[in-house]
Amino acid sequence: KKYMSKRSSQVADLIRTELNKIIIKDFEPPMGTLISISEVTISNDLKNATAYISIIPQNKLGSGLSAIKKFSGHAQKKLGKHLAIHTTPRIKWLLDERDLRYSEVDEALKE
Questions:
Q1: 1 pLDDT exceeds 60?
Q2: What CA–CA distance (Å, rounded) separates 46 from 88?
Q3: What would the DSSP string read from start to end of 67-111?
């Protein structure tokens, strides 16, 4: 993971908070799916951000990810209105792989 400056780190936290608010308010996840942003990283020039998405349950990963990608234009626009920074970073949506690793470990511990 690349090092983020203090400013980048603050902006990334703010974006995560705002995106989660936008998701709660405006996003309709696929039936029986919970989706949230677990982490955001941002480039030091604040132009590009990556939102790591947590999707529960695991068998809804595909539909959850495609739903959030369809929603990204709306989220991007809303984010621009909420952030008091010059340029709204472009958001790239990725699955938070840590969730998958945790559940694998969890399953292994149950055996």
A1: no
A2: 8
A3: HHHHHHHHHHHHHHHH--SSSPPEEEEEE-HHHHHHHHHHHHHH-
What sign for the dihedral angle of Cα 60, 25, 79, 13?
negative
Give the number of other CB atoms < 10 A from CB of residue 19. Answer: 26
Distance of alpha carbon 110 from alpha carbon 104, whole angstroms: 10
Q: Which helix (H) or strand (E) holds 21?
A: helix 6-26
101 pLDDT band (50/70/90 cuts)?
low
The single-letter DSSP state of residue 59 is G
**Count of beta carbons in the 10 Å neighbourhood of residue 56:** 16
